[in-house]
Protein: Glutamine--fructose-6-phosphate aminotransferase [isomerizing]
Amino acid sequence: GKGNFRHFMEKELHEHPAVLGDTLQQYLDPGSRAVSLPPLPFDPATVPRLTMSACGSAFLAAQVGRYWIEQLARIPVDADVASELRYREPPLAEGGGAILVSQSGETADTMAALRLLRAGGQKVLSVVNVPESSMARESDGALLTVAGPEIGVASTKAFTAQLALLACLAIGFGRARGKLDEAQARLLAHTLTEVPGHAAQILEQDEEIRAMAAEVAKARDVLFLGRGALMPIAMEGALKLKELSYIHAEGYPAGEMKHGPIALIDSAVPVIALCPTGPLFEKTASNLQEAAARGGRIMALTDAVGARALRGFAERVIVLPTVHPFAAPILHAIPVQVLAYHVAVLKGTDVDQPRNLAKSVTVE
Ligand code: M6R
Structure:
């Protein structure tokens, strides 16, 4: 049941700290701060190339995973939504590997991609939340997120659990490939062990996020911006808002805004910026200033240091815990989900069962 919560989604949002902790514990030893992965269908030390694929939110998690794996392990990764991968006749690398991501493990498009990849000689690893699912059975290997059953049609805790697992994979691959030394790997692993606590802190900022939601609920169009591994999280924010509130939202790479979407910006369009301190902060901040100069209403998710720089021109700033940039995508995923939840409640839409959507899409 829902316990004391109004919706399954609200309950599932509150499960973030536990689910992140449980998932990390499977792949990361908190004592030694070392990632330990079970035997995988491909050898990360030698695999020439990886293909990642999924649908919807799971695809956006895969895209973050791609950024991490390329950065930390220097393995070339392709990432495509499953419904495109299947028909684009991709040339697959000899001896290549694949990682497919799915909460249900039953999504028809992802299943079809799985079969295509296996037929093309790729060793397929599935990341699923349901151990007895079709994808787990048909893959060469499966890793489990430990999110528990997710009832809300809009994915929340399963998405962040996917991110946590993919983060562990990226560290493990980085070690296997000799691209991370032990100290670097330990630092990143330590960063992950702090994520469940930070997630709990973010859930306590509910009031602030709800106040932002009251503004967003009045809008007809909303833009979410981010760079690097925050870019797929911006897209996730837009997807969540569309699904739950039926407000038109777009997620965009912040640097791409000036190549078109900036034309949409006026004082009626909230621009939600995912802008933690890190190597890309200055670049994103200057994109936001461009939007503000055109009347755009900047609402930023950042950390304490970022807030100091953004307050001059941002209408609202939500200050998230200060973390290593590696963990920032996981943490930023939570407030965009909470925001979409509150907008939906304010608009009176069906939070757990949005119109036209099914939890598991088993048709192509
Ligand atoms: O079960 P899956 O993870 O394979 O589902 C994939 C998508 O259908 C799913 O993430 C969908 O986009 C959600 N409604 C997102 O909230």
The CA atoms of residues 77 and 84 lie 16 Å apart. The pocket of 5-amino-5-deoxy-1-O-phosphono-D-mannitol is lined by residues 55-58, 102-104, 107, 110, 153-155, 243, 357, 360-361 (CB under 6 Å).
